[in-house]
Design a protein that fits this description.
- It is a single chain.
- This protein has 212 residues and is mainly beta.
- The protein is elongated.
- Strand 8 and strand 9 form a beta hairpin.
- The protein starts with 13 loop residues before the first strand and ends with a strand.
- It is 12% helix and 37% strand.
- The chain is built from three helices and twelve strands; from the N terminus they run E-E-E-E-H-E-H-E-E-E-E-H-E-E-E.
């Protein structure tokens, strides 16, 4: 089986934000989907390792900022390559506003629309929780097209250098580490645990390549 086939599914990239006890946070997700129009409901699957996950589970409210093709790689680094458990992602980010529900959302510089939502049901998916939510507010912010996962990889994400070819059979070179093909995180060591999860982008061991 070729696991990269899943990358051809058409889906977007979003900044998911929440607020709990006066603390704002956000993360990058690619799983927002509309499931019904009457009532107007969406779902989002969020990794349990994300601080935003715990905040949504506790408060039942979130905003989705739909990213546009104007979004630079620095935005994905800011919201996706660092943890809200350790840093304040919202205060330093200049391009933001608050919606009627009191939660932060991105403004129209890098987002073309936003959705506010209230959770009505949760489903445990193991590593993730699927939140089913009513859309309580929404607006269009710009005419720029939405950025898709494929567009991000083709046009926004910097091209990583090609890994060195493995040594011929019987060669002396040894694996020194493993690089995440998604975000570039490097795991040092010859053996990568099969159940390893990237601490930055949350992808599994199948998305790592050896470094010689």
């Amino acid at each position: 089986m070729n696991p990269t086939a899943i990358y051809n599914l058409s889906y977007g990239l979003f900044v998911l934000t929440a607020r709990e006890d006066g603390f704002d946070n956000g993360c990058i997700v690619n799983t927002v989907q509309q499931v019904t129009t009457t009532p107007n409901r969406i779902t989002v699957a969020v990794n349990k390792l994300n601080k935003t996950h715990d905040m949504i589970a506790a408060t039942g409210a979130f905003n989705v900022s739909i990213l546009s093709t104007e979004a630079p790689f620095s935005l994905f680094q800011h919201f996706g390559f660092q943890s809200g458990h350790k840093v304040d992602k919202i205060t330093p980010w200049p391009y933001q506003e608050r919606s009627a529900n009191g939660l932060v959302r991105l403004d129209g510089r890098y987002a073309n629309a936003f959705l506010s939502a209230r959770v009505v049901e949760q489903m445990d998916l193991g590593t993730h929780t699927l939140f089913l939510a009513d859309v309580t507010d929404a607006d269009v912010l710009s005419k720029s097209p939405s950025v898709t996962y494929a567009y991000y990889h083709a046009n926004i994400k910097p091209k990583a250098p090609k890994p060195a070819s493995p040594p011929p059979e019987g060669g002396e070179r040894k694996i020194k580490g493993w690089r995440c093909r998604i975000c570039g995180y490097v795991y040092e060591g010859a053996e990568l645990p099969k159940d390893f999860t990237c601490p930055i982008c949350k992808h599994g061991a199948e998305d790592f390549e050896p470094i010689y």
